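Project standup — Tuesday

K.O.: blocked on the structure for the chain from last sprint. Re-posting the sequence here as requested.
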Amino acid sequence: MTAKRTVDLALFTRPQLAKIFQKDARTIARWIDDGLPVAVKGRGGRPSRYNLPDCVRWVLDRELQARSETGTDLSPQLERARLDQRRREELELRIRVRKGELVEVEAVQAEYADLAVVVKARLRAIPDAVADQLTGQSPAAVKALLLTRIDDALRELARGVHIASVDEDDDPEHIDAVVTLEAHA
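H.V.: unblocked you, prediction finished:
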């Protein structure tokens, strides 16, 4: 007569635990060295087997202990204090924005985009403004005139530009009607 072997379905091998916990087999081996509970010690070529509920409890206890040691305790008081701190930081940022100490990224991006349109239009207007003056000029004279006009345009823009709804398709000749320069004090 052959002896029947009973298999406990709640017991798992080390490779099965690795799959269940989605960890490498070496991690499970380290856990075993660190005290992961063994339900049935393996011997005679048979692997050790582990009770899943006991292993889950051990892993959770280990994680909670690690969190408390690193200052990431899950106590309600600590979580409340963290939430209060985040709210204070957010309020401080809002106050600094209202005072003009900080600006929203979107506002800077919009201003930069508008300024880029103005610069483009101002520089594209230069050829029309100097075309008549270039006839019969030497390459050096053409270069000097263009550089002077470009430098003039950049100086005007550097003094401050007030942008009143400029579209990228605006005609460069009409850009001066939209842009007003503000002298810095």
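K.O.: great, moving the ticket to review. Residues 162-168, 172-185 have pLDDT under 50 and may be disordered. The chain has three domains: 11-69, 73-102, 105-181.
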